[in-house]
Each structure stands twice: as structure tokens, then as C-alpha cells.
Amino acid sequence: MAKYPLFIDLEEKTIVIIGGGKVAAGKAERLRAFTSNILVVANETEIDFVPVIRRSYTEEDIIRGDIIIAATGDPDTDKKIAEEAKKLGKAVNVASDPDLGNFYMPAVIKRGDVVIGVSTNGTSPAFARYLKEEIESHLPEYTALISLEMTKLRDALKSKVTDQESRKKIYKNALRELLEEENITEEKAETIITKILKEMDR
Question: What is the CATH number of the domain that holds 47?
Fold first, then answer.
């Protein structure tokens, strides 16, 4: 059965990655765009951009983490980690066999506050990466900028417009103007939002 996607705040979670190879490094690299609370446990590793404990994992490491990633490169060890993590009620992802865990890590596109995750339920990471690249190629270069300006508009409207339907109409019109603007810059985007807010004050 397909898994339902959820977006969670990782800043208050501790992620423990058990393993120090290329797969573990890749997962740590992707995750650090969302949190600095990452710990790697491995006997040997070249990972140097997050804290590392150089030894074999223990149950204490699993207890310490809110989210566990088993990426040792040894399927039997990964399976054991998954079993221990599940017994402790932890969220666990298994690199060697995604079905052994209780969540999948999607291929991720991040443009400022815009985040898109693509998953094939662990059946084909290569296909997920392909779909990610296809989606990414169609995103406007200014995706992050538009998201930022729409956030500013949303914050401003909270005190100016109480009617939800009216706010939705303003959002829709503002987004249309931003998307229709060719070669949009931060200055142009701010001008559009400022104009909309001034029109509301008339």
C-alpha cells in the first residue's frame, strides 16, 4: 500500500545515521538542508560535515535518536537495527531494504520554502530520481523568490483582510502577476506586492 506523504519539522528531532559509506553520506547530505541535528555512528567513515561517533552502534544510539537510518552496507546489520528501532517505537529507514523500515526517504527538491518529495514507495529509487529531475527542470528559476513574496503578502493580509474568500482572491491575483512577469527579480516582485497592498489601503 502506498505511503501518505507528510512534511515534518526536523529541527526538534535527532537523526541518527548508522553507517559511514557513500549511501550514509548521501542521506546525511540531503537531510542537513533541513536540520543540523544529525549524528553519524560508524567504525570508519569519511563523513566530516556532521558529528561522527567512530565505533559500532549500540542500543543507546537508537534510544538517542528520534529518527534512525540504517545504512551500514550490511543487510543483516541493517535488518537488526530496524528490528531494534521498531521495538523502541522509532521511525526507521533502511537503505538496503526500504520495506524493513517504517518510512521512505523521497527524492527531494528544495527551493527556499518550496519542498517537493517524490517517492516510488521504495520500489525504484532510480525512477524517483528521474521524476525528480523532470519536475525540477520545469520549475521556474525564481520559485523560491515567489514563495518568499507570497509569504510576505500572506503575513500582511492577516491584519488587513479578515474574510477568507477575499484573501484567496488577492492571493490568486498576486500569484498570477508574479508568474506572468518575465525575468522577475526581487525588486520587481516587491514592487508587485507593494502595489497590491497600496490598492487595498485606498
Answer: 3.40.50.720
